[in-house]
Design brief:
five-stranded antiparallel beta sheet; mainly beta; about 425 residues; Neuraminidase
Length: about 425
């Protein structure tokens, strides 16, 4: 593990602690000392024991899968008391543990719900705004039907006026075949999933059977919407405004930009959405971004800017009403390299570097005090990995992080526990 001491405002003291990895089936008990785990000045970190791939967590519950089985734990992954055969489990791209106990999970282009701790499950057919079925397209290559439901961020549900709402967008047209970008939602614990917003047809990511699509093949998306993008980077909720924000990527096209920021409000009485495009900008700007978070009414995000230099990168903060005015943004930290994943919880900001765009092997960015001070660490012993899909802490205080090879192919899981929490 290597620490890079590029800190802002004041410099942390001390060197990074030595790393000690452990193996076997040992799992940290709530009251157990953390000294046995790898450590930095700011957090402990560990990989889970050998077993199923832990895809999501909430409180003491965790959802995992192997090639042909899905699992549910009620003790933070110590045991997998609930499990059932699921032949397509190796293709799972998304899961969410709802507050009422329901488990929603998705494969490449199919969505499933269990209401009885995985004893049974059934397929969910997504609905359009008019109530008709929203069916996956017939793929050119059956092995690449598209990532319809895979998000890049890990937090997708919020309390909205007393109702848990699940709202997320798909990070598609990279691997697995082209898919239409859309924002999905459920206001009834996953029993009904509908389209909140469907982007237009992207002429550069048609389904031609390739991993990300191309300029030939089947057009995908809403033919009546002129706003198109490659995929969605993040969706987040601001309780102060009672509004949702979304940002997309990726390219500058002759027809317009693919990097957009949208703001949406939900009318519960009419089950209807109102979305407005706030910004459309170039790919080398701070608006090509992700990691949207709201704290005390302030908007935080991290820039994924690339393309022609100069790159407008960093962790930024502003009032939500000022998102379209860069002069009113505050840059809290500049990691120098493109980043699109960030979570904020209990005053801790946690973000990750893309291994394909950074000299870091596994780069972790952390602020323990909501952006006043910062540190970066390179967890080299983990290999070349990109931290994505950052989930909120479980009942024992551990964030769950996907480690991806490249920036999208699933590799391992990492748990991070802030010190001083």
């Amino acid at each position: 593990m290597t620490r890079l001491d590029r800190l802002t405002r004041r410099r942390f003291l001390g060197a990074a602690a030595g790393a000690v990895l452990i193996s076997g089936n040992h799992f940290l008990d709530a009251a157990e000392e953390t000294d046995a785990y790898s450590s930095t000045d700011h957090f402990w970190y560990r990989r889970p024991p050998t077993g199923p791939y832990i895809d999501s967590q909430r409180g003491e519950r965790a959802f995992a899968f192997s090639d042909d089985t899905v699992y549910l734990s009620e003790d933070n992954g110590r045991t997998w008391r609930h499990q059932t055969a699921f032949p397509d489990a190796r293709h799972i791209t998304f899961s969410y543990l709802m507050k009422n106990g329901n488990v929603l999970f998705a494969t490449l282009n199919r969505l499933y719900l269990s209401t009885d701790n995985l004893k049974t499950y059934h397929e969910i057919t997504v609905k359009k705004a008019d109530g008709s079925d929203y069916r996956p397209h017939t793929p050119q290559n059956p092995d690449r039907p598209g990532w319809y439901f895979a998000p890049l961020n890990g937090v997708s549900a919020w309390d909205v006026r007393g109702t848990e709402m699940l709202v997320w967008g798909n990070y598609c047209s990279v691997v697995g075949g082209a898919a239409p970008p859309a924002i999905y939602y459920s206001a009834d614990s996953g029993q009904t999933v509908k389209i909140a917003y469907a982007f237009g047809q992207n002429p550069y990511h048609r389904d031609n059977g390739s991993p990300g699509g191309g300029s030939t093949g089947t057009l995908l998306g809403d033919p009546d919407n002129p706003v198109f993008c490659r995929h969605i980077h993040c969706v987040a909720y601001n309780p102060v405004e009672d509004a949702f924000y979304a940002c997309t990527g990726d390219h500058d096209r002759a027809e317009g930009f693919e990097c957009h920021w949208l703001r949406g409000t939900y009318d519960e009485s009419n089950d209807a959405w109102d979305w407005r495009v706030l910004v459309s900008e170039r790919l080398n700007s701070r608006y090509k971004s992700g990691g949207i978070n709201f704290m005390d009414g302030q908007l935080y995000w991290i820039s994924d800017a690339n393309g022609p230099q100069p790159h407008d990168r960093g962790v930024f903060r502003c009032a939500p009403a000022d998102i379209a005015d860069p002069a009113k943004h505050t840059q809290l930290f500049n990691p120098r390299y493109e980043c699109a994943n960030m979570i904020i919880q209990d005053g801790v900001i946690l973000a990750g570097h893309y291994a394909t765009a950074s000299p870091f092997h596994t780069g972790v960015i952390v602020s323990p005090d909501l952006g006043r001070t910062w540190a970066e660490y390179d967890l080299q012993e983990l290999g070349r990995r990109s931290p994505v899909r950052l989930h909120e802490k479980n009942a024992e205080g551990w964030f769950r992080v996907d480690l991806r090879s490249g920036w999208i192919d699933r590799a391992e899981v990492l748990f991070i526990k802030p010190k001083g929490a």
